[in-house]
Amino acid sequence: MKKIRVKTGNEYEIIVERGILDRLGELCVQTAKASKVMIVTDTNVEKLYLERAKKSFEGLDVKVHTFVVEAGERSKSTENLVLLLETLAENEITRSDAVIALGGGVVGDLSGFASACFLRGIKYVQVPTTLLAMTDSSVGGKTAVDLKAGKNLAGAFHQPCLVLCDPETLETLPKEHFRDGMAEVIKYAMINRPDLVDRLYEYTPGDRDALDEIIAICIEDKRDVVSEDEFDTGIRALLNFGHTPAHAIELATKYEMTHGSAVAIGMAIMTRASVRLGKCDERVLGDLLGLLDKFSLPSRCDFSAAELARGALGDKKRSGQTINVILVCGKGISEICKIGVAELEGLFEKGLE
Ligand SMILES: NC(=O)c1ccc[n+]([C@@H]2O[C@H](COP(=O)([O-])OP(=O)(O)OC[C@H]3O[C@@H](n4cnc5c(N)ncnc54)[C@H](O)[C@@H]3O)[C@@H](O)[C@H]2O)c1
Ligand SMILES: [Zn+2]
Asked: Which of 17, 22, 50, 328 could form a disulfide bond with 46, CB atoms 3.0-4.6 angstroms apart?
């Protein structure tokens, strides 16, 4: 078992332990002291883990309600947000009760935002069941839903009161979603953790202990970054490594390409550009490309630098403005660079060579 303490606005614990899903009820009562809970999940996770989650409350004198959304990004909608808020009200959930997010980042972001809004903020517990949600979206307190105009446009910072990661749940996660999460894991290695680069090279798929340790390292790393910059005004930008070109690629493929694949290509673009700019040597790029290859993630795309720059900057005129990009300056070392928006295309050009 690994316990990671997060010291943001409210302090809370992230526990990584196989089988901990069966202790959800007990730990929820201990930490949130709730007498009613609303478990939010999606249609895939419902079939796999909802019964076990509910069973963990047996004998605890807690009333358990459930709210199930269709699996997929489309469920991170304002419609579901309102529906969830109305359901919380109908079931007379109060500030001493709690929402439980059982699922991936979609369920986590939607439940987190509903918890931030309902009664101006109630407690919520995250039980992430995807690699991405365990290592990324459940840490840091960013919650959101999508608007028609774009992803994550309505949201709030709202920290959970407890996060329970049960890596055993990853055994049912489809390969492509595991791969997607691995792109973000590689991101932590590239920006901050040279030791994780080596661990990922040594990792043999199926090695459970190694996977649990990798998950814990990512959580600790994100914890350290967000504790220093809870509201995303400085160092947290490092976590956007590869994401500027990735957003453009997602947009250009009309979200056909998954986020993880787009981030993988984005990281390759930014690392190639870093090498060409003399920020780091070829070996660092070799490390990244080797890891992407090991986890079957792509490193190239067919879009031009102009297309990517246009997508990354949006249609709005941004002349005279600057944009932060993340460059790699060594193994597991990165920096935030402010460049003029006009320079972005040139940078991508270097990254596509
Ligand atoms: N809040 C943040 O800081 C943050 C950070 C990164 C990403 N996000 C958000 O996270 C979302 C993506 O999260 P995601 O990749 O977890 O996607 P997701 O929640 O859609 O889950 C991916 C798929 O896996 C299924 N699934 C989940 N757990 C499973 C399991 N254990 N076994 C089998 N199937 C399972 C889901 O039903 C879904 O079909 C995006 O909306 C993104 O914007 C938020
Ligand atoms: Zn990401």
From this structure: 50
